[in-house]
Design goal:
- The chain is α+β, with helices and mostly antiparallel strands.
- The protein is 17% helix and 35% strand.
- It is elongated and about 105 Å long.
- This is IRS-type PTB domain-containing protein.
Length: 180
Amino acid sequence: MATFSQSPVDKGEGTYLNTSIKKDEGVWGRVAQAQPFSVNVEPCQLAKLCDIEGAMTMFVTNQCISFEDPKTRQNKYLFQLSWIRRFGQRNKDQFYFECGRKCPNGEGTVTCISQSAAEIYKVITTKSSSNVSTVIPGKQKVKGLDEKKALDLKPSEKLLDVKPKVSSPAPKQIIKYNKN
């Protein structure tokens, strides 16, 4: 079965990831696991740097989002899911994702127009949550407490091991004797 692989390519303006399909040597996931979507990428600085403006085929795997030219079938750019700060759906036809500074071409937001924007959002939510163990405030488990009690704790208490409260001993009394 064929898989995705990547190699950095320098085009003068920065490092681009050239994705290609190779047999059984991939890093990003099997093609059978990739979900293709037809999208139209809106012009923006990041899309221009990545050469993904206009009509593209977007593939979503367990590790990345990649873009392919639908006419030439040439892979244009690959965004690792770990580079993505946030993603969402602006309306029923618009999906966007924001890349952080880990992206070789820098920070920016890529907006895709597609009739399957809701499906793209669901797929990326599923794929990204299966790869990352996220810490959600208010839902941290505390050793020795059941889940309901852990939710009632203050954030500063959640990171500590909670031990039964023991009253502190009374302070020692210091008695001064006069040497008369």
